[in-house]
């Protein structure tokens, strides 16, 4: 299973130093961009992606928790973002147009579904996306309780992908850690987003975080 580190949860005073070490551990970097409206919280930004792009050749995944994702796409592409993930309800009415816009710029596109949403909400364009991110917590804040009902959605996505010969990856965002790893793997997850409970909360020493995470991931 692949790993994507949620940089919202890291010590932002040591970004450059730590990314050099994290590059050998992670597959992707998960960048939460929040506008204070879709969710009440604020997090990282397009400028943050610009700053870390020269530090890594890993996939940079921008998770847009914003009311108007269309306003961010061109800036994200210019900043060097590889993958843009948009919440399903914010794609309503413009899904095919925005997916095409991102694809035309030779970037990957993903859709994010909240715990109460299901495959039917996104089935019309699942053949077009590169990733489906399943939220196992409500969007907006780190450290929330794992919502077990999302496991069924993961299993259904895996079955749907196989039945329809599709190729999107299934990413999980929220409470991915040693306690949930086995269930998430069994359900059919491809990528885990590791944040505070699954990585950065282990220690102030980034080398120790890597060692601790490797124990349950392996």
Strand content: 15-25%
Determine the number of helices (DSSP H or I, runs of at least 4 residues): 9
Q: What percent of the residues sit in helical stretches (DSSP H or I)?
A: 25-40%
- The whole-number mean of residue pLDDT values reads 95
Give the class from helix and strand content and strand pairing.
Answer: alpha/beta
Across the major sheet, the strand order is 1-2-3-4-5-6-7-8
Keywords: Isomerase, Metal-binding
GO biological process, one term: carbohydrate metabolic process
GO molecular function: D-ribulose-phosphate 3-epimerase activity; metal ion binding
Protein name: Ribulose-phosphate 3-epimerase
How is this structure best described in words?
The chain is an alpha/beta fold. The mean pLDDT is 95. The protein has helices spanning 15-22, 46-52, 73-79, 88-91, 95-104, 150-163, 181-187, 196-200, 206-217; strands spanning 2-6, 28-34, 59-65, 83-87, 108-113, 131-135, 169-173, 191-194. The protein has one domain (2-217): TIM Barrel, CATH 3.20.20. The termini are close together. Strands 1-2-3-4-5-6-7-8 form an 8-stranded parallel beta barrel. It contains 9 helices and 8 strands. Helices cover 34% and strands 20% of the residues. Keywords: Isomerase, Metal-binding. Its EC number is 5.1.3.1. It comes from Lactobacillus helsingborgensis. GO terms for molecular function: D-ribulose-phosphate 3-epimerase activity; metal ion binding. This is Ribulose-phosphate 3-epimerase.
Short description:
With 218 residues, this protein is of the alpha/beta class. The protein is 34% helix and 20% strand.
